[in-house]
């Protein structure tokens, strides 16, 4: 009898956790990788504005720090979200209602992740995008925490947890990248254009 009560209690807790989960609950991996953008030919200009060979080099680079160093480099909320896979409060974060034109970088490295032109109002209280600015900089893996099955999104370069991706977004991709503001750093369009120029091979070679 006690075993029966234990099983019933566990089932109840699982249901309660599901009902109390945030709006990030439903998730499916992108079924069409081309919806997030296709890779350019070597030397061609990529979606983020950089030559594709620069994108390839950046995607292979690795930014690493010790846990103590990350805690020193990041704010408590940034550390909790990016290094501990935390989730910030909805409607109480820096970029959920940001409408400025520009590009969002990883807060853990100099890696562009999302373009404001792909940002939309999802009603969730978190910044939401239809696709990454450059697919090579963002990776997805299955997340089975909190009694749910979701697709976790992280930065390839520095391993920062960004949020989750769902298949309930608007056209043209049908995807919703639900991202924590704490994992992002915003750069205006003018600043970003200058950043792209500075990171192009011709400029870098001249320095």
Enter the CATH topology name: Metal Binding Protein, Guanine Nucleotide Exchange Factor, Chain A
Morphology: globular
Mean pLDDT over the residues? 81
Number of strands: 9
Order of helices and strands: HHHHEEEEEEEEEHH
CATH homologous superfamily identity = Peptide methionine sulfoxide reductase
Count of alpha/pi helices: 6
- The top-level CATH class is Mainly Beta
**Sheet bearing the most strands, described?**
6 strands, antiparallel
How do the strands of the widest beta sheet line up side by side? 3-4-8-7-6-5
Instruction: Identify low-pLDDT runs.
Output: 1-41, 203-207
Structural category is alpha+beta
Sheet-strand content, in percent, reads 15-25%
Q: State the helicity in percent bands.
A: 25-40%
Please, how many domains?
1
Q: Would you identify the CATH architecture?
A: Beta Complex
Provide the fold topology:
Elements: H1 2-20, H2 52-60, H3 67-73, H4 76-84, E1 102-106, E2 112-115, E3 119-120, E4 128-129, E5 138-143, E6 150-155, E7 161-166, E8 176-179, E9 184-188, H5 189-198, H6 201-206
Antiparallel strand pairs: 1-2, 1-9, 3-4, 4-8, 5-6, 6-7, 7-8
Structural write-up:
This protein is α+β, with helices and mostly antiparallel strands. It has a single domain, classed as Peptide methionine sulfoxide reductase (Metal Binding Protein, Guanine Nucleotide Exchange Factor, Chain A, Beta Complex), CATH 2.170.150.20. Helix content is about 30%, strand content about 20%. The protein contains 6 helices and 9 strands. The chain has helices at about 1-20, 50-60, 65-75, 75-85, 190-200, 200-205, and strands at about 100-105, 110-115, 120, 130, 140-145, 150-155, 160-165, 175-180, 185-190. A 6-stranded antiparallel β-sheet has the order 3-4-8-7-6-5.
């Amino acid at each position: 009898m006690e075993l029966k009560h234990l099983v019933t209690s566990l089932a109840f807790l699982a249901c309660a956790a599901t009902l109390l989960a945030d709006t990030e609950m439903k998730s499916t991996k992108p079924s069409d990788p081309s919806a997030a953008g296709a890779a350019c030919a070597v030397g061609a200009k990529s979606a983020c504005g950089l030559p594709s060979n620069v994108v390839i080099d950046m995607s292979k680079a690795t930014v690493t720090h010790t846990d103590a160093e990350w805690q020193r480099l990041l704010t408590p909320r940034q550390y909790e979200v990016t290094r501990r896979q935390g989730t910030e409060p909805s409607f109480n974060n820096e970029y959920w209602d940001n409408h400025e034109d520009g590009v969002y970088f990883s807060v853990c490295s100099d890696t562009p992740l999302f373009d404001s032109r792909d940002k939309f109002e999802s009603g969730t209280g978190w910044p939401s995008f239809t696709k990454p600015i450059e697919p090579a900089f963002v990776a997805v893996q299955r997340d089975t925490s909190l009694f749910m099955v979701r697709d976790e999104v992280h930065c390839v370069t520095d391993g920062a947890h960004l949020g989750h991706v769902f298949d309930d977004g608007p056209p043209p991709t049908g995807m919703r990248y639900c991202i924590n503001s704490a994992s992002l750093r915003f750069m205006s369009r003018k600043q970003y254009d200058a950043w792209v120029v500075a990171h192009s091979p011709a400029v870098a070679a001249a320095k």
